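Annex B. Sample input.
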Amino acid sequence: MAGDGSEGIQAVFEARNRSGSPMAFAAFDVLEVDGHSVMGEPWTARRKRLEDLLEAPSPGLCLNSR
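Annex B, continued. Sample output.
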């Protein structure tokens, strides 16, 4: 029986609460800030916004510019 795809996201929700779970979050752009679209801004401006939002990252979170 084929699934509807929700099994994968359910596994993510379960894994995020498990200690030592090998999960990662990658943010490479920001499209909205405080309910306002910033999609019309140049990528460099959106990237700066993202860096500002992640200025005080939580443990294990790093900003990697490639």
